[in-house]
Amino acid sequence: MSEFTIVALSAGLNQPSSTRLLADRLTGAAVSALEAGGATVKTETIELRDIAHDVVNTMLTGFPAGKMPAVFDAVTSASGLIAVTPVFTTSYSGLFKSFVDVLDNEALTGMPVLLGATGGTARHSLALDYNLRPVFTYLHADVVTTGVFAATDDWASGEDSLPGRIERAGGELAAKILGSHRAGPVDDYASVPSFEELLGR
């Protein structure tokens, strides 16, 4: 039986927040789709709000600070990533961008990624494709086709309901995870011969 890990990044500034709620819903949809295929799934949600000081310190010093080494490890070793940010002034939040800025440029290469965003009105929905998607394309991530934007009014059911979009996007992420050939983190010492091998024993 296959086992996968999904990590969700939530850049919401409040607790609770609609950004975290969307991240949880997207995670649930992806997990359901994977489990329907017989997979075992582990999940982890990282609230960027909780590590904001560590993000800034890492940016200023150039070295992972505080909880950042564990966060980097969780993100880079995940089978799939869900990234959700609030939209301010038609773009992702400064906290979200700061976190992305301290990631290694090759950390997400080939990583299946599902993008989500929240905002007050649907007028901000284009931020997903004009601001958020290009960032992850630059990082060579494998971004799913459906991004999910949730305005305040979207939490009420409608013809093109938010739950339907969440389910579709979660299914797309699950499909990419199942079809991913991403090698994952490289162990720099995996091919180093043992002491006995060096001595020819």
Automatic annotation (TrEMBL):
NADPH-dependent FMN reductase-like domain span: 5-155
Record-linked InterPro entries: CE1759_FMN_reduct, Flavoprotein-like_sf, FMN_Rdtase-like_dom, NAD(P)H-dep_FMN_reductase
GO MF entries: oxidoreductase activity
Coiled-coil blocks: none
SUPFAM superfamilies: Flavoproteins
Key words of the record: Flavoprotein, FMN, Oxidoreductase
Protein name as annotated: NADPH-dependent FMN reductase
